[in-house]
Every structure is written in C-alpha cells, then in structure tokens.
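so im writing up the methods section and need the DUF7931 domain-containing protein record in one place, dumping it here so i stop losing it
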Amino acid sequence: MSDPGASGPAESGQAPARPPLPAGSRVDVAAARAQLLAGARRRVAIYQPVLPEDTYGTPPELAELRRIGTSGRGAEIRLILHDPAGALRDDHRLVALAQRLPSVVLVRVPLEELDLAYASSYLLTDQGGYLFLPDARRPEGRASTADRAAQAPLLQHFNEVWERSARATAWQPLDL
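--- predicted struct ---
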C-alpha cells in the first residue's frame, strides 16, 4: 500500500488537497477523528483491528456516527474489526449504535491471516478525508479532511479486505 501522506498537488484540474490535520498525539488523533466524522455526509469506512473504549465511543463521536447513520438514503457506516466479540465483552458504546441501526452500521471480520496481521487503522469519509495510523496502538499518523489521492490506496485496501471478510454476527441484536 502506498503512503497516504505522500500525495502531491492535483495536476488534473481538481481542487488541491487541504492541508493535513495534526495527528501526532492522542489528543490530535481524537480531534482529527471528530473533525472527519463531522465533515462526513453519508458514508464512512473504518478499519480498526481492536476497538479501544476511547475510540469511536465518546459521546461526540457517537453523535456524529448516529447523524451519518440516520442521514437518509445511502447512509452507510462500514467497520472492519479483528475482534468484534472483544468490543461486545468490553461493552463498547458503538455496539449499541450498531444494534439500533443494523442495516446501516455494517461490521465485518477478516478471515485471512494476511488481513488479521494488518496492524494499521484508518477512518475514511465520503468527502475524501482520512485518518491513517500506521500502528493502531500508537496515536501517531496522518490525516486530512479532503485528500482523495492520499485516501485512494486506503479505500482500495478497505474494499479488498471487506470483500474477503465475513459478517460479524456477534453484534447482531437479539430478537426475543
């Protein structure tokens, strides 16, 4: 996968990429996530090997995800998680949102060893924004609110892993 922070100026007449967002500390990464979610309209894609409590679980992040999920026709929140059962055991707040919006919040689990060994995480928005953390356990990475050239290899990777992954059944609501 190419380096998502290595895009040059747009030469094809497209608008130039926006300046990068700070993403060098836990506070920067949380702020970048919040800004990206606030800027998304109808779709986000999230690759998160492990889902820590403070990632996509804060009230502002959940409010933005709820807004995206209820934005109308075409709304879609796709997540690839290596351990969705762990997030369920830890009572992650995103699980409740996914159970309330099961047709919009779609969760998959990678099946192949190559995909399960992938240690990076990222957030992609329908506005060309991205947050990329080379090591999901460390709050150091790159982000931009609109840089489709840098987002493209991540989106391609996400779509390829999505196709090879299985639907996560652990988060399905129980109809009792």
